[in-house]
Amino acid sequence: MPPARQLVLIPSYNTGPLVLRTVREARAAWSPVWVVVDGSTDGTGARLQALAQDDPGLRVILLPVNRGKGAAVLAGLRAALGEGFTHALVMDADGQHPADCIPAMMAASRAAPAAMILGDPLFGPEAPLIRLRGRRISNRLAQLETLGGGIGDVLFGFRVYPIAPLVGIMRQSRWMRRFDFDPEAAVRLSWQGVPAVNRPVPCRYLRPEEGGVSHFHYLRDNIRLAWMHARLVLGMLGRSPRLLRRRAAPPAAATPR
Fold first, then answer.
1. CATH number for the domain running over 6-247
2. Where are the domains of the chain?
3. How many CA atoms are closer than 13 Å to the CA of 225, on its beta-carbon side?
4. The model's pTM
5. Using CA atoms, how far apart are residues 41 and 254, in angstroms rounded to an integer?
6. Which tens digits make up the pLDDT trace of 153-188?
């Protein structure tokens, strides 16, 4: 692979002042940082543009309407690919992901440039129990869908992706545009032979009184996740002979493709 060119990519939708704090912390840890404002109506797009005027390491991409996290990430990845970037660390704008872990994640990506570097979340006592139980189900299903592809946590969005393979997958799929982006991206990259490297990362759920913002809708998004897993299980069935051969191959012979 060519020498790595890495950026931080932050999709944001109506996260209020939290996105400003997240961007400042990310910029203190890395350059460049790109923010994709996904049709926000809370005024943060203009405030981020004002920050970018005095910071050459910060770029703001404004999308006219909200299309979902996956669509916002894809817009940023396409622009980054066009400018020669090879890897993007995607992190949420809502303050859950620790910016001080960015350098270590980027170093892991440079050491294994063909891999996706997946944050493996370390939750505090404030994490909602119902959310933790739900992600355990998704994690088990991801292991089934990849036949043991080594994905530690399929829902945690603090990750470094090799850009070209992910853009190629998303161009061929109508899915992965909203809340289903994180798990489906990891599973489909694994199907393509992109290995997973898991790194423990602290994760914090902010309470509403701390400014925490969540756009997760329990009924709607759990239905979307259930439909996504149904698609992926069906997709795994047709790929199972190739996946089983790959799992059985010696490490040196398991080359990504």
1. 3.90.550.10
2. 6-247
3. 21
4. 0.87
5. 47
6. 999 999 999 999 999 999 988 788 777 899 999 999
